[in-house]
Amino acid sequence: MGRVSVPRPPRSADRWAVVMAGGSGTRFWPRSRRLLPKQLLPVLGSRSLLQETVERLRGLVPPSQILIVTHQDHASAVRRQLPTLPRRNILSEPIARNTAPCLALAALEIERRAPGATFVSVPADHAIADAREFRATLLEALAWAAAEPVAVTIGIRPAAPETGYGYIQLGSRLAGRTARVRAFVEKPNAARARKFVSSGTYLWNSGMFAWRTATILELLDRLLPQVTQPLRAALAKPARARPRALERAYGRIPSISIDYGVLEHARDVLVVAGDFGWSDVGSWAALAALEVAGSRGHVVPVDAKGAVVFGNGRLVAVVGVEDVIVVDTPDAILVCHRDRAQDVRQVVDELTRRGLASYL
Amino acid sequence: MGRVSVPRPPRSADRWAVVMAGGSGTRFWPRSRRLLPKQLLPVLGSRSLLQETVERLRGLVPPSQILIVTHQDHASAVRRQLPTLPRRNILSEPIARNTAPCLALAALEIERRAPGATFVSVPADHAIADAREFRATLLEALAWAAAEPVAVTIGIRPAAPETGYGYIQLGSRLAGRTARVRAFVEKPNAARARKFVSSGTYLWNSGMFAWRTATILELLDRLLPQVTQPLRAALAKPARARPRALERAYGRIPSISIDYGVLEHARDVLVVAGDFGWSDVGSWAALAALEVAGSRGHVVPVDAKGAVVFGNGRLVAVVGVEDVIVVDTPDAILVCHRDRAQDVRQVVDELTRRGLASYL
Description:
2 copies of one chain form a homodimer. The first copy, chain A, is α/β, with parallel strands linked by helices. The first copy, chain A, is 31% helix and 25% strand.
């Protein structure tokens, strides 16, 4: 593969998109609950992250060719949030098994409906500032994926030495925004992260991919047969028997990510460098950093530098406490230091331990 | 005056008590509001501080001889909280003018009803652990006040080098818990406060006093005629005309404390040392220190040493923030560092500035 120019993208009829909406979003407690995970919340405005993700994909992919994969507990909420999407485009998993089974299920469904298609897969719960550049980047990824039998990942030009993301080391440049992947790198420590960013040859791993259906299924069948075989068997069943069969299949297949299970072992992977104001909105602190107007109600700070309030109509006063995040909801209040936003998960664990199910 | 034993207390018919309930209690925002100041709040349990104060005085003074002085805006709430108290025992001030006018008004009323009486005056918003010892101390103060034409103050054995209280330097000991006052000392700095406490010859000034009505009125007429003259004139008016007359009088008289205006200038003052677990409950931090079960609803702390929650039924989770006080109410939430509890007043100022009257 020695192209000097970006290949022509597949025609719109052959473009599909898969939105991975399986997250449980405990890190956004108390706003996120078991039945209302982060991707279903209006985190950034009036529409949920899922609704914004689907909206962003329109114009790149025909709505009839956008699939949502979600946990069965959330399927009805997803349908309510996306009324214009065909019901059959919402695939529900009986058990969350991370991204590899999720993408395998989607790929098998696309293969069944549209042999020869190429698709992008994107998480449902990311924030993207520049939707136009986002679509241009994904279109380039679709073009490479349609032209070559390889996985194409979207890398993000790092804005800071984040230790919370995996990184992608760039290999030889191809054309446009695209290069070969030299290596996938696990979450680094602060020192390595700084090296990565200053080197200019590392990108954040965004968890977004493009590939021909045939390509990902070939990779999955080779690298994760324990995932694809039970799924193929279940989907081969008559429609009536399929739900129970899928449930049994998911009971057997391992929980494994597409990065760890496939991409890190794939010989040939391309990366398209994206620069469209990306955030995975991984915690209240990340959301606070986006400085979204997430608050309803008055806020009165007194010597409260760095305090961020996600209000719910009530007035919130913060006195002499810096870098604190306050989240108000009808039945629960969170007061959390910005540096400890990841540990909101511990609150959820404690609520589970105490059996306070009504707050979960 | 060279007694070697505590004089006999006045007979119960001659004992009166004045409860000073004029506070506006902005320091307990958001629980305390303009129409619901601290003394009317169930700060320590199911009953308000005022109700507990009156309850404490029963057994020392006949209920018919307990007067409450409050701001006219709070008079009806006071009546509701003290249904068994004769209505005429609730005196309302048209304008808050600190403790000297408050006690002058009460003394003139007692003089009118019961010439020759002796009374104790106590703030409505203090916490007292040992009511029995409290009554014994006040009875001793009543005894000295009835026997001698002097002001008797209640001093508190200091539990810590507080810089938020005025101190009383002890003079020659008389008998029982009682000594002469050598000097009243303004709020000291930390170093002096430590000296005071270690010396063992200083007490906290509790703002509680005992005196014969004739004694305090003589002191007031001599030292603060600008307070007593307008009041005497107003009260001399026929009942119908009295409210307007009082309003005009209060418009003219200065705002001044009994400590600053009278006691610091009185020649002869006695002090009875009290040791009954006293707190002026001056702020949320002071209340937190009392470790009262002021909270309704679940609390989930994660690395939140020293955090105190005054809940309101909602669950409150605190993550990675130490020494924080969280106060929940139906329409407002306060998040405040324990060392900054005094600055809750600034929130009230800001709300006033912004014209957010509904939160005041």
